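Give me the fold.
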Amino acid sequence: MSKKPSTTKKTKTSEKKFSSKTVTKSTVAKFSHTTQSATFDKTASILVIGAGAIGGISAAFMKLAGYHVEIVCKYPEYAAKIESEGLHVFGVRREHQVKMKAYATLTEIKGQYDVVFIATKVNDLAALKTPLLRLLKKDSAVVSLQNGIVVEQLAHMVGAERAIGAVVGWGATMHSHGELEMTSTGEFVIGSLPGYNHRGITFVQELLNRILPTDISNNIIGALYSKLIINSCITAMGALSGLYLGEMLAEKKFRKIFLAIMREAMAVAEAAGIKVETYANKINYYKLLKSNSRWGDFKRHTLIRLIGFKYRRLKSSSLQSLERGKPTEISELNGAICRLGKKFKVPTPVNDAIVAMVKEIEHGKRKVSPTNLEHPAFTNL
């Protein structure tokens, strides 16, 4: 399915008040293990780390477009399957079977790459640092496709001049190893940290345009925070209730919790000096939450119901993790809102309750059930 090229979107940069760390150009030299420059054209070598729903589908479409793509998938048997049978990608962008070179670990790899996409769980990011650095050229582009706002952590790992953040604005589900469904279309938004402009960012845009339309923003923190808010609604609520997005947003009591999460997140953003971008060119949180009138309330609920209908088959990634017996990313989603709230002295009782309950589910002290949404923290919304 062909997509027309996406234009570059220029937006204002969020204030540095948010950042608790500083990555300066003088620190980048220590990450340069090679003098070889990266190539950003059709001959570029591309590595995708993570063969789940987002990573696997992204790798498959870039490979189909004729780029040299390899993938790291954590398990030897999964790597063998990708090489022999290929990734089975299906859903809203038709059906494809795509083979490519695959590795179970980064330590198996001998060469270096021009572009690296990281599509692992956020919890796995820190462990990648040592094996990843030797795979990079001096100006390789390293792109995080992960949830949360991890681009600053990535910059401290690989150097700020290499780091690129990305908002993934589409849905996918991994049914089993190699069985990957794209459940909805959407877009990407990518960007370097303030003060940096990676020379390969337009090539990264070209690559991601092969999957879905991609914009470049110079307010990547604001764009990532925007996605963080919607993720904190969808992912956490799905983990608590066990429901698909369409089922949740059809009910008003669930929509009220969504709105409460948003209000707390926006109050935190204001205190932290973050200019929150409009999500997917549809959700302007400032306008959405502005009016307290009945008409404003009606418009909010209508918009959220429409989102629920469009992405009705979307299954929470945290729910998928719980079903596989794995920890969720709740600490980097709602938990990030809570930590920033504590830092800037903004109360976040709804997000606090959500984080606590999901942690209880992870530790076997609570079951996934719609009844979790009857918690006292949600009764007076």
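The two ends are 43 Å apart (CA to CA).
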